[in-house]
Design brief:
alpha+beta; globular; 403 residues
């Protein structure tokens, strides 16, 4: 398979070959996009837009964030919850029906968290039961409110002392074990609740065999990636090499995965048998750093010849491109990158830096990128786009934004 075919296959698998919605984006469009990506990564960084909202905008265009909020953090009679939080590819929103596929991880994480929290559990052995009882009575509830309800920081008879960090650690332990989940969020604060009040009974009752569950996760990875190496497949749900390699071998034997050689790739690759390669990919999209198309940086480099690293933790003076940089996808290629910040107080989308990739036509990139930035600003409720001076594309992009 040529690298161009692999790239088109990967883009189609992620939903970039699907027709754009006509009119208002609905729950049906959300479900279609989720059937491609399989999950949405959560991240606390809000410099431009939270990570779980942006991949849907990249694929569907402007939509109401309430669509995601309702799907993930509310339960309505006519609109049952579609998504639930758990550790998948880092902290993620996953389809409700996929929650049982991670029970093996809940057991593993529960054991590892208990080992790391041994001192706390010995010091305050009753805290787990106290937290579960309080959540049952008061949930959905945040860790801070739980700490106040449990009297953290004050002696309780012969009981131990504890504080908010203790309560938060226990909440995270119980979340990792699957004994608590996120009932809802308030200003992005996780409010814990019992799984039986969040998930349908049939989901809670499903207990897949560990190997069966891991095979299902690898198949989902393959469907979302289109064509991928075994480490790519492993990374999507953060599986171990042994888990992934066994599942890949079994899926190949079953005919679900087809081994392929991709031009220029050093490792063998696998293609999901149900995928199809479109003749071309058109359209434009800004991609956040946590978009599943590019979150595995070595894969992005193999597919697009695009070296990308997030520089949030790099000292400002040493950053090459900027704090929170969005690659720009145009007609199936990554052609530019822009550092973005939503200045909500001023009502503008700031672009401190803009950079065109080597060999690309700057005039066309500016034309399409300026339109994409205006669309994003409008979606975020911002009135204008202001371009800074960093990067070779900045002067032309600034001029285009003033027209």
């Amino acid at each position: 398979m040529s690298r161009d075919s692999a790239r088109r296959l990967a883009l189609a698998a992620q939903g970039f070959a699907d027709p754009a919605p006509r009119g208002e984006v609905t729950r049906r469009h959300l479900q279609r996009a989720l059937s491609r990506t399989k999950l949405l990564q959560l991240d606390s960084v809000n410099v431009a837009v939270r990570a779980h909202y942006m991949p849907l905008f990249s694929r569907l265009g402007a939509y109401s964030a309430d669509l995601v909020d309702t799907a993930a953090w509310s339960q309505r009679a006519r609109q049952p919850r579609l998504l639930v939080e758990y550790w998948a590819h880092e902290a993620s929103l996953i389809p409700v029906e996929d929650w049982p596929l991670l029970r093996w991880r809940m057991r593993e994480y529960g054991g590892s968290w208990r080992r790391r929290s041994r001192e706390l559990l010995e010091r305050a052995p009753e805290l787990i039961d106290d937290v579960l009882t309080a959540v049952k009575e008061l949930g959905p509830i945040g860790a801070g409110s739980l700490e106040r309800e449990l009297g953290g920081g004050a002696a309780r008879g012969r009981g131990a002392w504890w504080n908010r960090s203790d309560t938060k650690r226990v909440c995270e332990l119980l979340f990792a074990m699957g004994e608590l989940t996120t009932g809802t969020r308030r200003s992005f604060e996780r409010l814990y609740d019992l799984p039986e009040r969040v998930l349908p009974a049939q989901v809670l009752a499903h207990e897949p065999d560990d190997d069966e569950a891991i095979r299902a996760l690898v198949e989902r990875s393959a469907h979302a990636l289109g064509v991928a190496t075994e480490p790519d497949l492993r990374d999507y749900y953060r599986l171990s090499p042994a888990q992934s390699q066994q599942a890949v071998a079994e899926l190949v034997e079953d005919g679900v995965l087809e081994p392929v050689a991709v031009q220029g790739w050093r490792q063998p690759a696998y293609r999901h048998a149900a995928t199809r390669i479109p003749r071309k990919i058109t359209g434009r999209a800004l991609l956040c750093p946590f978009d599943p198309l590019i979150w595995e940086r070595s894969r992005a480099e193999r597919l697009f010849d695009f070296r990308y690293r997030i520089e949030i933790y790099v000292p400002e003076a040493k950053r090459q491109y900027g704090y929170y940089v969005f690659p720009f996808l145009l007609d199936g290629e990554l052609v530019a990158r822009v550092d973005l910040k939503a200045d909500r107080a001023a009502g503008v989308l700031r672009v401190p830096g803009a950079f065109v990739e080597p060999g690309r036509d700057p005039a066309r990139v500016v034309l399409e990128l300026s339109a994409a930035l205006r669309e994003m600003a409008s979606w975020l409720g911002l009135d204008d786009v202001v371009v800074g001076g960093k990067g070779g594309l900045a002067p032309a992009l600034s001029s285009a934004m003033r027209r």
